[in-house]
């Protein structure tokens, strides 16, 4: 057994309690003791880390992180000029950034060229270093598209997108993504239409339910990209397990979420960045 004793730090324990002065003892992969400074006893050969003046806290969990994208300059680059091999190499570097930011677990809902399960497996078997990862394969999009609008092909796949055009294809690709190793199925419930402002609901409720029912039968949860109030409510009724964004929802939909117990990952930082920096790049919040 190997032990690590962290002493002198200010502890945030993740319960919501106020930070307090405490020492933390780890044995192998577990926290085995937490107590006031000087009260936690470690083995003589334990590694001792002096955290005086620093904060000790649990690893962060990021419920919506695209590890395979990097700082692409456009959807055109992401879909048509970033090959799978480059995406994989970029991801290996991104994982280091994620760890350095204090994130020890994350969920990547959809990945470039479906490399997510391979990235997860590479982390798990020690080929590359990274946080614990749960992952989708690619996002399921109708031909109307997602946030890339007309760049989405009418059929087939590109970048992080797998286009589905009817219920049979929805069921087929949900099953295939699970066979390929997805921990989650991702539905892109809203999308951009060039002649319309904002993102519109581009799936029917029955289409979303077909994916949810298929995934749930195989023990896999479903997440959905939902910007609008309408899409969020429809996704909840269809059985989606995690709503991403829910940016413009009404009090009625908030109550629907509460009553159903469906969690939301609101991605507030995206909206804050859009409000602060959107005008500089020609992007609005509508």
Question: Helix and strand layout, with pairings?
Answer:
Blueprint lengths: L2 E9 L8 E8 L2 E6 L11 E4 L4 E2 L3 E3 L12 H6 L3 H17 L2 E6 L7 H9 L7 E4 L3 E3 L15 E2 L2 E3 L3 H13 L5 E4 L1 E3 L6 E3 L3 H13 L4 E7 H10 L3 E7 L2 H10 L3 E2 L2 H10 L9
Parallel strand pairs: 1-4, 1-5, 6-7, 7-8, 9-11, 9-12, 12-15, 15-16, 16-17
Antiparallel strand pairs: 1-2, 2-3, 10-11, 13-14
Helix pairs in contact: 4-5, 5-6, 6-7
Order of helices and strands: EEEEEEHHEHEEEEHEEEHEHEHEH
Shape: globular
Mean pLDDT: 93
| Whole-number tally of structural domains | 2
CATH topology (level 3) name of the largest domain: TIM Barrel
Helix tally equals 8
The CATH architecture name of the largest domain reads Alpha-Beta Barrel
Rounded radius of gyration (Å): 22 Å
Helicity level: 25-40%
Q: What characterizes the major β-sheet?
A: 7 strands, mixed
**What's the CATH class label of the largest domain?**
Alpha Beta
Distance between the termini: 56 Å
Helix and strand content put the structural class at alpha/beta
CATH superfamily of the largest domain: Metal-dependent hydrolases
Question: Can you give me a brief rundown of this structure?
Answer:
With 286 residues, the chain is of the alpha/beta class.
What features would you describe in this structure?
This protein is α/β, with parallel strands linked by helices and 286 residues long. The longest helix has 17 residues, at 84-100. The model has no long low-confidence stretch (mean pLDDT 93). The chain has two domains: 3-58, Urease, subunit C, domain 1, CATH 2.30.40.10; 61-281, Metal-dependent hydrolases (TIM Barrel). It is built from eight helices and 17 strands. The protein has helices spanning 75-80, 84-100, 116-124, 167-179, 205-217, 229-238, 251-260, 268-277; strands at 3-11, 20-27, 30-35, 47-50, 55-56, 60-62, 103-108, 132-135, 139-141, 157-158, 161-163, 185-188, 190-192, 199-201, 222-228, 242-248, 264-265. Helix 3 (116-124) links the parallel strand 7 (103-108) and strand 8 (132-135). Helix 4 (167-179) packs parallel to helix 5, helix 5 (205-217) runs parallel beside helix 6 (229-238) and helix 6 packs parallel to helix 7. The termini are far apart. The chain has a seven-stranded mixed sheet with strand order 10-11-9-12-15-16-17. Strands 1, 2, 3, 4 and 5 form a five-stranded mixed sheet that branches. Strands 6-7-8 form a three-stranded parallel sheet.
């Amino acid at each position: 057994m190997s032990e690590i004793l962290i002493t002198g730090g200010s502890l945030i324990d993740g319960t919501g309690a106020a930070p307090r002065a405490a020492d933390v003892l780890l044995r192998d992969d577990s926290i085995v003791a937490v107590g006031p400074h000087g009260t936690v006893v470690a083995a003589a050969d334990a590694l001792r880390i002096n955290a005086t003046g620093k904060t000790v806290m649990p690893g962060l969990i990021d419920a919506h992180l695209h590890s395979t994208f990097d700082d692409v300059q456009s959807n055109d680059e992401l879909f048509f000029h970033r090959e799978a091999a480059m995406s994989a190499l970029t991801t290996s570097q991104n994982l280091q950034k994620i760890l350095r930011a204090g994130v020890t677990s994350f969920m990547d809902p959809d990945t470039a060229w479906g490399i997510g399960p391979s990235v997860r497996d590479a982390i798990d078997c020690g080929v590359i270093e990274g946080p614990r990862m749960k992952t989708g394969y690619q996002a399921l999009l109708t031909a109307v598209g997602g946030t890339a609008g007309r760049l989405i092909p009418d059929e087939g796949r590109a970048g992080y997108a797998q286009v589905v055009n009817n219920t049979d294809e929805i069921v087929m690709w949900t099953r295939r993504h699970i066979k390929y190793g997805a921990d989650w199925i991702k539905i892109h419930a809203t999308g951009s239409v060039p002649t319309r402002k904002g993102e519109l609901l581009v799936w029917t409720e029955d289409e979303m339910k077909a994916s949810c029912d298929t995934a749930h039968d195989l023990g896999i949860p479903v997440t959905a990209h939902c910007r609008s109030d309408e899409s969020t409510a429809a996704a909840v009724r269809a059985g989606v397990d995690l709503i991403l964004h829910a940016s413009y929802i009404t009090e009625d939909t908030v109550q629907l979420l509460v009553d159903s117990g469906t969690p939301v990952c609101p991605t507030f930082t995206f909206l804050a960045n859009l409000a602060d920096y959107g005008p500089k790049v020609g992007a609005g919040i509508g």
